């Protein structure tokens, strides 16, 4: 009898296999941005932690290049062909209008190291941090932010454009605005809906401007942003009220960003229906950051929160608890990735999964997490989704913002005392998938046996 089932869930040719990283979480010695200042304040970061020397990509007095190079070696040895990193605005423009050529040169060197290892760089221009001079001017609340950001972006593209064509303007505008201005867990720790809306609106406008700037400077640029997709599931699918609440949350959390960057329309209440020409069609690709779905229930006691209550299903498999909070980081749900991809496909653009990962301190979930999420990504491709790449968050355990050093997302374990990296089992799993350009059946049999029949049949 011939076996008609595939031996591997094959990804398309030229699929980009990467890891995602960010400057402040890896470099170290960043003292001139608003996060470094925030980390000095009491009770802001779990355990009083600081990014400090981080994972050591940028040591004191310009050291650290070898540490970065050794990590790039790790990525290349796994069989990856891409790496997402961000540039630190506060290094490149340490004072208003003053650009540090040596910092730009250093980034060019780092990117050269990636290229030399066959790792295509994806460069994020804003990943949560900005220089203190800008913070003092109100950062994303300042009406001039579009000009500041566009000027900075132009310098970066000028300096790195001979080695980089894949750009991500802003990482997770929604998360930056929500965490910093509504929930208060990120700087500046505000709790104001009008300020949240203002910041989100300006981030979108600045993205549109940056998109035009990059294309003016570089013909073959591919530009997008990374959107943290909140997959909103009605708490009770049979309840029309829950379904409406979930749809409203989807609109607020996702459509505000996605519709704006395609139709140019700033959704109410961001702009009361205003259409901004330079935002129309301002993404060459959509960057999807997916970690978890969320359940949404209609709650009449919460008019200020759009009558919605959001939570993780306690009966679902949950990932590690966020230190300092009483809840898990999220649900482990690969089908949420499939749903997100299907929803994004409606925008008609290529998609990169710019982040996907799980906090898992003992790495007992991550091997299965990676294999099953990629199996769902494969399923989405079979259903017609134009998915071009996957960036796992992240290579080495790193500084996890408000959670400090206690949420561990790395494929490599970091010894905080010595800086030593130790590969986790998940790095071998991800490496096998990247090298095979797909999820082999025998690998799924090892790490997720109950899922084998879902993808490979009998
Ligand atoms: C995302 C951020 C990234 C990292 C992961 C875990 O929201 O973009 O920097 O913190 O979460």
The DSSP helix count reads 15
Number of strands: 15
Q: Provide the helix percentage.
A: 25-40%
CATH topology: the name is TIM Barrel
Task: List low-pLDDT spans.
Answer: none
Helix and strand pattern = EEHHHEHHEHHEHHEEHEEEHEHEEEHEHH
Rg over CA atoms: 21 Å
Q: Outline, from the CA principal axes?
A: globular
Strand-pairing-aware structural class: alpha/beta
The distinct ligands, each listed once, are:
beta-D-fucopyranose
Describe the structure.
- The mean pLDDT is 96.
- A hairpin with a 6-residue loop joins strand 13 (412-414) and strand 14.
- The strands form four sheets. An eight-stranded parallel beta barrel has the order 2-3-4-5-6-8-11-12, surrounded by seven helices.
- The protein is built from 15 helices and 15 strands.
- It has a single domain (8-231, 277-290, 319-456), classed as Glycosidases (TIM Barrel, Alpha-Beta Barrel).
- The protein has helices at residues 23-26, 34-40, 65-78, 89-92, 101-116, 132-136, 145-160, 173-183, 193-217, 240-263, 334-345, 366-382, 425-436, 441-447, 452-456, and strands at residues 8-10, 16-20, 82-86, 120-126, 166-171, 222-228, 231-234, 286-290, 293-298, 308-311, 351-356, 387-393, 412-414, 421-423, 438-440.
- It has 458 residues and is of the alpha/beta class.
- The two termini are 13 Å apart.
- The chain is globular and about 65 Å long.
- The relative contact order is 0.14.
- Helices cover 39% and strands 16% of the residues.
């Amino acid at each position: 009898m011939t076996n008609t089932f595939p031996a591997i869930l094959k990804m398309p040719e030229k699929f980009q296999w990467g890891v995602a990283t960010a400057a402040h979480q890896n470099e170290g010695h960043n003292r001139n941005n608003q996060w470094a200042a925030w980390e000095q304040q009491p009770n802001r970061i779990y355990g009083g932690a600081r990014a400090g020397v981080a994972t050591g990509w940028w040591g004191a007095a310009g050291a650290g290049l070898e540490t970065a190079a050794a990590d790039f070696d790790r990525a290349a040895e796994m069989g990856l062909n891409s790496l997402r990193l961000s540039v630190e605005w506060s290094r490149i423009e340490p004072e208003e209008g003053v650009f540090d050529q040596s910092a730009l040169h250093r980034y060019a060197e780092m990117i050269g190291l990636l290229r030399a290892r066959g790792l295509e760089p994806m460069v994020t221009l804003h990943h949560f941090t900005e220089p203190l001079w800008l913070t003092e001017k109100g950062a994303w609340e300042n009406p001039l932010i579009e000009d500041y950001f566009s000027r900075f972006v132009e310098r970066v593209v000028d300096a790195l454009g001979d080695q980089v064509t894949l750009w991500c303007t802003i990482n997770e505008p929604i998360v930056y605005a929500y965490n910093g201005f509504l929930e208060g867990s990120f700087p500046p720790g505000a709790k104001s809906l009008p300020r949240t809306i203002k910041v989100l609106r300006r981030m979108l406008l600045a993205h549109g401007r940056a998109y035009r700037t990059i294309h003016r400077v570089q013909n073959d640029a591919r530009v997008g942003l990374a959107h943290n997709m909140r997959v909103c599931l009605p708490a009770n699918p049979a309840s029309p009220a829950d379904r409406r609440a979930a749809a409203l949350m989807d609109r607020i959390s996702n459509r505000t960003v996605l519709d704006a960057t395609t139709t140019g329309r700033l959704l109410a209440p961001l702009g009361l229906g205003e259409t901004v020409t330079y935002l129309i069609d301002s993404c060459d690709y959509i960057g999807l950051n997916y970690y978890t779905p969320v359940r949404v229930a209609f709650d009449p006691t919460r008019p200020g929160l759009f009558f919605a209550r959001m939570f993780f299903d306690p009966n679902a498999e949950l990932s590690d608890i966020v230190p300092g909070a009483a809840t898990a980081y999220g649900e482990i749900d690969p089908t949420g990735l499939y749903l997100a991809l299907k929803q994004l496909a409606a925008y008609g653009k290529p998609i990169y999964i710019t982040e996907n990962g799980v906090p898992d301190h003992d790495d007992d979930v991550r091997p299965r997490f990676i294999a099953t999420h990629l199996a769902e990504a494969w399923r989405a491709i079979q259903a017609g989704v134009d998915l071009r790449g996957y960036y796992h968050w992240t290579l080495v355990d790193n500084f996890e913002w408000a959670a400090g050093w206690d949420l561990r997302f790395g494929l490599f374990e970091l010894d905080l005392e010595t800086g030593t990296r130790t590969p986790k089992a998940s790095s071998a799993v991800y490496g096998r998938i990247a090298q095979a350009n797909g999820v082999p059946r025998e690998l799924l049999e090892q790490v997720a046996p109950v899922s084998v029949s879902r993808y490979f049949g009998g």
